[in-house]
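Quarterly update from the structural biology core.
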Amino acid sequence: MTKAYQLLQREHVASIRDVQKNPSRSLRGMTRVMRGSTTFGFFFSTDEFDELLEDLEAASSKDLRARVRAARKGLKKGDVVSLADLAKPYGV
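Predicted structure, tokenized:
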């Protein structure tokens, strides 16, 4: 499953009226708040927000980007085996 699909799968959608009537029931996890067909804003729980910040910090790391680039080159050359390929023989 792609990361974008995983993100959309975790997303809840609530109208601005639902949020105004009962915010504790409408806002959970990661919620897109809509006004009609327009996105009004997003609500992130503390856990979701911390996870998002961690991903953003990792993405901005030059060292991490260099390691990912090197690993991708290794995959193309065949020097490195992906975790998915390694797990296949074991049925994981």
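The longest helix spans residues 62-77.
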